[in-house]
Write a structure and sequence with these properties.
Elements: H1 3-13, H2 19-32, H3 46-57, H4 62-70, H5 73-76, H6 81-88, H7 90-108, H8 114-123, H9 128-143, H10 150-170, H11 174-188, H12 190-224, E1 230-233, H13 238-248, E2 260-265, H14 268-281, E3 283-284, E4 290-291, E5 304-309, E6 315-322, H15 323-329, H16 335-339, H17 346-360, H18 366-373, E7 381-385, E8 391-395, H19 400-407, H20 409-414, E9 415-420, E10 423-425, E11 437-441, H21 458-473, H22 475-490, E12 494-496, E13 504-506, E14 518-523, E15 526-531, E16 543-544, E17 546-548, E18 551-563, H23 568-578, E19 583-591, E20 595-606, H24 607-619, E21 623-629
Parallel strand pairs: 2-6, 13-15
Antiparallel strand pairs: 1-2, 3-5, 4-5, 5-6, 7-8, 9-10, 9-11, 12-17, 14-15, 14-16, 18-20, 18-21, 19-20
Helix pairs in contact: 1-2, 1-3, 2-4, 3-4, 3-9, 4-7, 6-7, 7-9, 8-10, 9-10, 9-11, 10-11, 11-12, 12-13, 12-14, 19-21
The structure holds manganese (II) ion.
C-alpha cells in the first residue's frame, strides 16, 4: 500500500478530487508517526493509508480521505488538534476530533452495554463520515489482528462483533458487516470457524452449480412470461451460518438456505407473478411462504419469502420484492434485525434507516450525498445518557431540568444542577446529543415557578406544577420555615456590641471572613461589617464595635466563585461532606469567561465549623473567591 495507489483509487471515482490535500495529509501523518511501528512490523503510516483506502472503497470525498490519513495523529502523536485545524481547516479537524472522541467513549465506559455504546456513537456525532472513518479504522485493525497477543485479539474481536458490526449493518454496509463478523468469529472461535470453512469449501462447487441451475431456469421462465427482473445470488457469511447452526442445533448439511436467490421486480403485480412462476417450477416447503408485501412488517420491511425444494432435494430460499422495497430493506433495519432477537428502539432505528438512505444516495449523485452527510443525524430529538448508560430521549433544546424530571419526578424536584460530561452546569443548561448527565440534588431544594419558563418536556412541566400545588397546600411548613429563618438572622455569627438584635450584613467591598479583624459601620438598615483594613471605613464616623460569635444557630450562604472545570462540583461536594455538613440549598451557574458561581445554604452552629469549611473550600483547585452572606 502506498499513497499513489490511494490517489489512483480516488481518481477512479472522482476525477475532480483535490489530490493536493490527500498528498499533504499523507506527508503530515507520515511525519507525525515517523519511527513508530505497528505490531506487524510495518511502519505505522501503513495503517492510516489502508484506512484511507477503505474509505475510498466507500467512494468518499477527499476531505474524508484526508481525515482517514490523519485519524490517529491526535491520539498517537504529540500533535494537537489545533495544528490539524491550522493546516487542513475546520472540517477535516472536526472529523479527526470526532474519531478521537469515539475512542474515548469506548475506553471510559466499560459498564455500558453494547446497545448503548452503539446509540452513543451514533448520537454523539453529527457527521456520518466520522462513523465511516471509525469503521474503516476498525476494519483494518481486524484485518491485521493476528499480530496482537491472544488477550487483545479477543477483546478487540468481541467489541467488533458487538458494536462495530451492528453499526455497519445499520448503515447498510453489508460487506463491511460481514467481513467484521467473519474476522471476529475467526479470532473468538477459531475451531468452529475453521470447521465451517472446511465444510463449505468441500461443498462450494456443488453449491455454485445448483445456484447457476436454479438461476438459469428462473431466468428463462421469467423471459417467457415477459417479466424483466434482476436476479441476485445471495452469499452467506460464515458467521451468519454459524449463528444459524447454533440457534437450531443442526449441522451444516442440514441448512436449507445455503443457496438463496433474491429477485427484484418492477412492481407489486410482477412480484406475485414471479412467486407463481417459482411455485410452478419447484415445490414450495409448506409453512415457509411469508407474504410481507400484503402484510408489511412494522418497520416497513416488505418482501415475499418462500422456500422451495430443488431437483436434487436441496432446499433454497427466494426473496421477491420491488426496487423500492429493496431499498427500504437495505436500509439496515431489515425485519430480521428484530427477528434475530435484538431489541431496538424503533424511533431510533427509523432515524438510522434514514441515515442509510442518504448513504445510498452516493451511487446516484455524489454531490447531494456529501451535502446530506453533513446534516445532523437526529432532527428533533436528542439522546442523552444517565451515568449508568440508560438512554433518555428528549426533544431538542431540553434542559438539565427536563432530563431530571424524565428520570424521576423526585430527582426533578430536588435538582440543583448537574454534571454534564463531567462538567458542572446549572438547571437551565441545554443538553446536546450524547451528553452523559448526572443530576445533583439537594434535600431541601424546592421547585420554583420560574422553572416552568425553560423546561421543554411535558413530564417536567407536570412534575413542577404538581410540586408547586403540593407546596401551596401545606402552608404550615412554609410558615415554620420562614419564621425560623427570620429568627436566625438575629442570632448570627457576627454581633454588634451592646445591641444583640441589630441587623448585620457582611460588606461586599472587602468580603470579611471568620478570623479577620472586623469593624461595623452603621448604615440605613443596620450594620455593615467591614475588615478593619477596608478603604471604605476610613474617615467614617458611625462606626460600631462588632465581633465574631463563637456559637450560633444560623443559615449562612456561602458563595464560591471559581474557574469552571471538570469535576469541580464533585470536589466541592466532597469537601462539604468531609466537613460533615448538610447543604440545605445549592445553586450554581456558569458564567462568561469560563467562570462558575456556586452558592450553598448551610446551617452552622459554631464559628469553628464555619471557618473550617471555608479553609477547606479555599484549597479546592480553581476556587477564586469565597464570600458569606446571611
Ligand atoms: Mn487507527
Amino acid at each position: 500500500m502506498n499513497v499513489y495507489k490511494l490517489i489512483k483509487k480516488v481518481r477512479s471515482y472522482n476525477s475532480n478530487a483535490d489530490i493536493g490535500i490527500i498528498k499533504r495529509a499523507y506527508a503530515f501523518a507520515n511525519e507525525a508517526h515517523k519511527g513508530k511501528k505497528r505490531e506487524s512490523g510495518d511502519s505505522y503510516i501503513i495503517h492510516p493509508l489502508n484506512v484511507a483506502f477503505i474509505l475510498a472503497d466507500f467512494h468518499l470525498d477527499e476531505k474524508t480521505i484526508a481525515a482517514g490519513l490523519l485519524h490517529d495523529v491526535v491520539e498517537d502523536s504529540p500533535i494537537r488538534l489545533k495544528e490539524i485545524e491550522k493546516n487542513f481547516g475546520k472540517e477535516i479537524a472536526s472529523l479527526v476530533d470526532g474519531v478521537t472522541n469515539i475512542s474515548k467513549i469506548k475506553k471510559d465506559k466499560e459498564t455500558f452495554d453494547s446497545e448503548n455504546i452503539i446509540k452513543m456513537l451514533m448520537a454523539s456525532t453529527s457527521d456520518v463520515r466520522v462513523i465511516l472513518i471509525k469503521l474503516a479504522d476498525r476494519l483494518h485493525n481486524m484485518r491485521t489482528l493476528q499480530y496482537l497477543n491472544e488477550e487483545r485479539r479477543k477483546k478487540i474481536a468481541k467489541s467488533t462483533i458487538e458494536i462495530y458490526a451492528p453499526i455497519a449493518y445499520r448503515l447498510g454496509l453489508y460487506s463491511v458487516k460481514g467481513e467484521l463478523e467473519d474476522l471476529s468469529f475467526k479470532f473468538l472461535f477459531p475451531k468452529e470457524y475453521h470447521k465451517i470453512k472446511r465444510e463449505l469449501k468441500a461443498s462450494e462447487k456443488k453449491r455454485n452449480q445448483i445456484l447457476e441451475q436454479i438461476k438459469n431456469r428462473l431466468e428463462t421462465a421469467l423471459e417467457n412470461a415477459d417479466i424483466k427482473a434482476r436476479i441476485q445470488g445471495r452469499i452467506k457469511h460464515l458467521y451468519s451460518i454459524y449463528k444459524k447452526l447454533e440457534r437450531k442445533g443442526i449441522n451444516l448439511k442440514d441448512i436449507s438456505d445455503l443457496v438463496a436467490l433474491r429477485v427484484i421486480a418492477k412492481n407489486v403485480k410482477e412480484c406475485y407473478e414471479i412467486l407463481g412462476i417459482a411455485h410452478n417450477l419447484w415445490k414450495p416447503v409448506p409453512g415457509r411462504l411469508k407474504d410481507m408485501i400484503a402484510l408489511p412488517k412494522s418497520n416497513l420491511y416488505q418482501s415475499i419469502h418462500t422456500t422451495l425444494i430443488g431437483d436434487s432435494g436441496v432446499q433454497f430460499e427466494i426473496q421477491i420484492r420491488t426496487e423500492d422495497m429493496h431499498k427500504i430493506a437495505e436500509e439496515g433495519i431489515a425485519a430480521h434485525w428484530k427477528y434475530k432477537g435484538v431489541e431496538t428502539d424503533s424511533s431510533f432505528d427509523k432515524r438510522l434507516s434514514w441515515l442509510k438512505e442518504i448513504t445510498e444516495l452516493k451511487r446516484e449523485d455524489p454531490k447531494e450525498f456529501l451535502e446530506s452527510m453533513k446534516v445532523d443525524l437526529f432532527g428533533y430529538e436528542i439522546y442523552v445518557f444517565t451515568p449508568k448508560g440508560k438512554v433518555i430521549v428528549l426533544p431538542r433544546g431540553s434542559s438539565v431540568l427536563d432530563f431530571a424530571y424524565n428520570v424521576h419526578s423526585d430527582i426533578g424536584n430536588r435538582g440543583i444542577g448537574a454534571k454534564v460530561n463531567g462538567k458542572f452546569v446549572g438547571l437551565k443548561h441545554e443538553l446536546k446529543n450524547g451528553d452523559i448527565v448526572e443530576i445533583i440534588t439537594a434535600k431541601h431544594q424546592k421547585p420554583s415557578r420560574e422553572w416552568l419558563q425553560f423546561v421543554k418536556t411535558l413530564k417536567a412541566r407536570d412534575g413542577i406544577r404538581k410540586a408547586l400545588k403540593l407546596e401551596k397546600n401545606i402552608p404550615v411548613r412554609r410558615f415554620i420555615d420562614k419564621k425560623r429563618r427570620e429568627e436566625n438572622v438575629f442570632s448570627s455569627f457576627v454581633n454588634v456590641k451592646g445591641t444583640e438584635k441589630m441587623k448585620a450584613r457582611l460588606a461586599r467591598c472587602c468580603n470579611p471572613l471568620p478570623g479577620d479583624d472586623i469593624i461595623g459601620l452603621h448604615v440605613k438598615d443596620g450594620v455593615a461589617i467591614h475588615k478593619k483594613t477596608c478603604e471604605v471605613i476610613k474617615g467614617q464616623k458611625k462606626k460600631a464595635e462588632v465581633y465574631w460569635v463563637e456559637h450560633f444557630d444560623s443559615f449562612i450562604n456561602i458563595g464560591v466563585l471559581c474557574e469552571d472545570r471538570i469535576g469541580l462540583m464533585a470536589d466541592i461536594m466532597n469537601t462539604m461532606s468531609r466537613s460533615e455538613i448538610n447543604v440545605e440549598k445549592a445553586t450554581a451557574k456558569t458564567m462568561k469567561g469560563g467562570m462558575a458561581q456556586c452558592s450553598f445554604t448551610i446551617k452552622f452552629h459554631s464559628l469553628e465549623k464555619l471557618s473550617n469549611l471555608l479553609s477547606r473550600l479555599k484549597k479546592v483547585a480553581s476556587v477564586k473567591r469565597i464570600s458569606l452572606s446571611l
